[in-house]
Amino acid sequence: MLTETQKRTIQAIVNVFETGEPAGNYGAITFSQGDVGRLTYGRSQTTLASGGLARLVSAYCSTTGAQQAEDLRSYLVRLEARDRALDEDPQFRTLLIKAAADPAMHRVQDQFFDRMYWDPAIRAAQRLAIETPLGSAVIYDSFIHGAWSRLRDATLARVGIPAPPSDSAAVAGEHVWILEYLRLRRDWLATHPNPLLRRAVYRMDTFLELAGAGNWALTLPIEAHGVPITAASFAPAAVAP
């Protein structure tokens, strides 16, 4: 079972990938032409196109004392409709940034991303007998970034199922499986027709570097995409202006 420090380390790595901040940038907003997710927002970048942004804003608006709830509530219908005009709506963006300064939004985002991504990722890891923090981080990153099932199935077809925990070879089996998954996912990203995904190979390179160093326990300090992560990195990040 992962410790709280290991969980926060894993999330810090993915936070760096998503917003450049180990503690996460709760007010990060991005939109790039060609990104199928459309407008993205928050610590782990939920998207307009997936409906995740609608669920996140709805949860915030339902939170007692949420400071920007009244203004954001008027956007819920458009969010549910995944209205593309919201991609570059300056008033909507301003409200999201203001909401990110509200402690209520931090709590809502932490709960939302745990419910939507962390918990399912850990269940998926358990089903495959993946127990190391690094292995869990790889799977969590794939849940956040997408295409987990596709690359999981490709890895299973290549090397089979990892050894169960009762097997004395379980650790070695997990290492083999995760390394093969990382190679397959890196190749998939590097050759993807979407240039935004091709640029994301650094995510796999970060994990491969950690595996190459033998740091399957994710013992701090570590480095993710050039950003150092220490215990001090878990302090809340400032909201971008």
Compact overview of the structure:
It is built from eleven helices and five strands, in the order H-E-E-E-H-H-H-H-H-H-H-H-H-H-E-E.
SSE layout:
Blueprint: H1 4-19, E1 29-30, E2 40-41, E3 46-47, H2 52-61, H3 69-73, H4 76-80, H5 90-100, H6 103-127, H7 133-145, H8 148-159, H9 170-190, H10 195-198, H11 201-212, E4 222-224, E5 227-229
Antiparallel strand pairs: 1-2, 2-3, 4-5
Helix pairs in contact: 1-7, 6-7, 7-11, 8-9, 9-11
Task: Walk me through what this model shows.
- The protein has one domain (4-234).
- Helix content is 56%, strand content 5%.
- The protein has helices at residues 4-19, 52-61, 69-73, 76-80, 90-100, 103-127, 133-145, 148-159, 170-190, 195-198, 201-212; strands spanning 29-30, 40-41, 46-47, 222-224, 227-229.
- Strands 1-2-3 form a three-stranded antiparallel beta sheet. It has a two-stranded antiparallel sheet with strand order 4-5.
- α1 (4-19) packs parallel to α7.
- The longest helix has 25 residues, at 103-127.
- It is globular and about 50 Å long.
- It starts with a helix and ends in a 12-residue tail after the last strand.
- Mean pLDDT is 92; it is low at 237-241.
Largest sheet composition: 3 strands, antiparallel
Decide which structural class fits the backbone.
Answer: mainly alpha
Q: Helix and strand succession?
A: HEEEHHHHHHHHHHEE
Mean pLDDT: 92
Distance between the termini: 38 Å
How many E strands? 5
Strand order of the largest sheet: 1-2-3
How much of the sequence lies in strands comes to under 5%
Tell me the domain tally. Answer: 1
